[in-house]
Amino acid sequence: MAGAAFAVLAIICILFIIAIIIWVVSIISRGALIAGVVQVEDEGSTSFGQAWAAGRKKFWTLFGLGVLAAIPMIILVLLGVIFFAAGIASGVGLMDVQEAAGITTIVTTSIICLCFLCCGMVVLGMVLEQIRVYGERAAILEDLGWIDAFKRGWQVIKENLGPTIILWLIFFAIGLVIFMIILVIVGVLTLPFLAMFGLSEPGAWMIVPAICGGLVMLVVFALLRSIVTTYISTTWTLAYRELAGWETPLELEEVAA
User: Fold this and answer.
1) With the CA atoms of 120, 125, 130 and 131 taken in that order, what torsion angle do they form, in degrees rounded to the nearest 10?
2) Cβ neighbours of residue 62 closer than 8 Å, sequence gap 6 or more
3) Which of these, 236, 248, 227, 65, lies nearest to 163 by C-alpha position?
4) What percent of the chain has pLDDT over 90?
């Protein structure tokens, strides 16, 4: 029993470490992709080492941008929880005097909190995500710190709200198309396995084809996601240069120094 618990704990720790490594690599990769795209645009070529070094140097800046973008969401959630708790407490207190009034207060508070919290999180999340997108490019291209980059991202949004909304809608439409393509691919890959399972007796042997099919779908999904992510990131980088009026060539050797 102790051995099984230790094995589960070890697996959890390993998965946690792998998740942290993937998270760190993803942040550095975003910075490297931004730097590499700009250098390709300016000079016609780049190198993995230079782009990766630029992204690695700006790791803490990009990390700080993510933290700044998350703080308003956390505050909104806390305010929603406080308001919800206060409304529930008021409803419970009223139930001692008049049960109908207490139930009405609880239901009304729940609906208001749910509607405002969900709508507020969606709108605020979209704005903060776009600030982070522009802020990351400001950090790499203009060599700004995380607070200045956040401010710069907000400034670019305010000055270019129309083009930003249009680009966002285009990417949203692309995402829907990709989602439909993934559904079709998953359906096509699933049909042979469903037919095989339907014509055969159930047994342990089904685990192998199920795992293989899952891995195939995972690889296809990861490939499509990486292509779309690279395309969108590249487009936002080029759009930022145009919207922010940034024309100074990016020297990766200086950024990564």
Assistant:
1) 90
2) 27, 30, 31, 55, 136, 139, 146
3) 236
4) 2
